[in-house]
Amino acid sequence: MSSSTALRLFRGTGPFEFTGPVLERVLDELAVDIAADGEVSMVIAVANGGTIPGAGLAARLAVPLAHVHAKHNRTDAIHTQATGDVAVAFPDGFPDALSGRVLLVDDICGSGATFTALTTALEPRLTPGAHIKTVALCRNEGADRAPDWAAYTVDDWVVFPWETPPAGIELVALPSPASLKGRTL
């Protein structure tokens, strides 16, 4: 278990809606940027939020996909702060040894705690010369850690295509990214 004291920011500019078409464009652009930075050996998707973007990146980069479980949210209700305490679980069949450049993918880097906990938990499995790079569709401004790649920096809750939108709350659509570099909303 790992702990973080960073708090997500919720400034009332959203909640934002991350639509399916935006997801496809973001995954295309992320794959190009990541591939241009060097060869990837594997994608590890953080279940549950990173499952779909992780699978999308693994397919686009033509590399193997694995999943890891990390939990620290008390609820999926919007504007809920994460606990900062992250429980990590490796499923049966998870690789014992990781080589090359491994991508750790999640939907959002809310506080930074999940990426920090998972990077620490994965380190004993890294072979000499192997390293982890982090990818998130969004990074909350309150995160105490920035992923290596993120399509958006946001200051409110984000509802992703695989999530049920909250009833009675109007969502603000995220624009299609003009560029993945420095996009802040």
Short description:
This protein has helices at residues 20-36, 51-61, 113-122, and strands spanning 16-17, 42-47, 65-71, 87-89, 101-109, 131-140, 149-154, 158-159, 172-173.
- Can you tell me the CATH class? Alpha Beta
Neighbour order of strands in the largest sheet: 4-3-2-5-6-7
CATH fold topology? Rossmann fold
Q: Alpha-carbon distance between the termini? A: 31 Å
The portion of residues forming beta strands comes to 25-35%
Strand element count: 9
Mean pLDDT value: 87
Question: What global shape is seen?
Answer: globular
What is the N-to-C order of secondary-structure elements (H for helix, E for strand)?
EHEHEEEHEEEE
Tally of helical segments: 3
Oligomer: single chain
Number of domains: 1
Which radius of gyration do the C-alpha atoms yield? 16 Å
Helical amount: 10-25%
- Characterize the main sheet: 6 strands, mixed
Structural class: alpha/beta
The residue ranges in which pLDDT falls below 50 over 5 or more consecutive positions are: 180-185
The assigned CATH architecture is 3-Layer(aba) Sandwich
